[in-house]
Amino acid sequence: PKILPNDKKVIETILDIFKRHEEIGVYNKNLLYHLIKERTGLQTKDITYSLGRLKHLYKLFKIDFININNEE
Questions:
Q1: Suppose 46 and one of 31, 42, 52, 65 were both cysteines; which one would form an S-S bond, judging by CB atoms 3.0 to 4.6 Å apart?
Q2: Structure confidence at residue 26 (pLDDT)
Q3: SS3 per residue for the chain
Q4: pLDDT by residue (tens digit) across 12-47?
Q5: CA dihedral in degrees (32, 36, 38, 39; nearest 10)?
Q6: Half-sphere exposure in the Cβ direction for 27 (13 Å, CA)
Q7: Which residues of 31-62 are buried (b: 16+ CB within 10 A; e: fewer)?
């Protein structure tokens, strides 16, 4: 599956939040969405769409990873 430009923006922002979590100190879902909206310039529906796509990609990655390890 192809990673869309909005997906990339969301990924980069989430990685930055994880790297700077001690500085940010935000652990509320609504505040995290607001922070992602500020940094990406995307609407909530676009962020939600990208997060759903990323969740799906993660599940595919996890399945492939488990299958590779079970073959060994």
A1: 42
A2: 66
A3: CCCCHHHHHHHHHHHHHHHCHHHHCCCCHHHHHHHHHHHHCCCHHHHHHHHHHHHHHHHHHHHHHHHHHHHC
A4: 999 998 898 888 776 788 888 999 999 999 999 999
A5: 140
A6: 3
A7: ebeebbeeebebeeebbebbbebeeeeeeeee
Encoding tokens for residue 67? 């299958």
59: its two tokens: 């599940």
Q: Where do we find the tokens 């990406």?
A: 40
Token pair recorded at residue 45 = 């529906």
